[in-house]
Structures are given as structure tokens and as C-alpha cells.
Design goal:
Number of helices: 3
Helix content: 10-25%
Structural class: alpha+beta
Distance between the termini: 21 Å
Strand content: 5-15%
């Protein structure tokens, strides 16, 4: 896993500059390694999450198989411990079901707060001391 340096002008859920989520595999709605969002991103892919086997199974059961490679879309498939920019609503759904993946708050776009309470994200954060 590799993350990018903070070169984004966007803000994270802590009100700080958004840092990169992951570029191996490259993530983000815009496939720039960041959980950036914009008008084209109807799914709000703004939560930088660390995949787990439980979450991947949960997502597949909901019709979004993130584990299977899709070469036609240059998608390698995800494994446990990979970071990925998830739709905020899917993360909230997994939270309600008891299987939310951990979250990198510094790489989670502030737009996530329109859908998910900060307290819920913090309860699953990997980057709080």
C-alpha cells in the first residue's frame, strides 16, 4: 500500500488538508488516489476505508463485489488490508450491520459528514492517537 502526500486543496473530516487514500491499487472516484468528490460522483466515494474480509463479503452480498478483478475496468480486485474510497452510504450501511471497515480520517473527505456522523467514523479510525 502506498499513500500520496497532501497535495489536495480539499479538506478531510477533521478540517485538515485531505491526504491520499491509496495508489496501489489506485482509488478514488477520479482514480487519483484521493477520496475527492464532485458533481459526477453520485455515490459520494469519500470514505477512505481499510478493507476486511467481512466487509468485502457484505458488499458482495449487496451487489457490489469489490474482491473480483475486473480487467476491462482496470480494477484489480481488493483484498483485506487494501485501502479504498467507499461510498459514504455503503459505509453507513455496513456500520448499521456491524461490519464497518476501519477508516483513515485524514484521507476521508469532509463530504462524508453529510451522510455519516463524525463520531461513528472516529469509533473506527486507524489514525487517531
Amino acid at each position: 500500500m502506498s499513500t500520496r502526500a497532501p497535495v489536495s486543496t480539499a479538506r478531510n473530516v477533521l478540517g485538515e488538508p485531505l491526504i491520499g487514500c491509496c495508489d496501489a491499487p489506485i482509488t478514488g472516484f477520479y482514480r487519483d488516489g484521493f477520496c475527492h468528490t464532485g458533481p459526477e460522483d453520485a455515490g459520494r466515494h469519500v470514505v477512505c476505508a481499510v478493507m476486511t474480509d467481512d466487509f468485502l463479503a457484505f458488499s458482495a452480498a449487496r451487489g457490489n463485489d469489490l474482491a473480483t478483478p475486473r480487467p476491462a475496468f482496470d480494477f484489480p480486485g481488493l483484498d483485506a488490508d487494501d485501502r479504498w474510497c467507499l461510498c459514504a452510504a455503503r459505509w453507513a450501511e455496513a456500520f448499521a450491520a456491524g461490519v464497518p471497515p476501519r477508516v483513515a480520517l485524514t484521507a476521508t473527505h469532509e463530504a462524508a459528514l453529510e451522510i455519516v456522523p463524525l463520531a461513528d467514523l472516529k469509533a473506527h479510525a486507524i489514525d487517531l492517537s
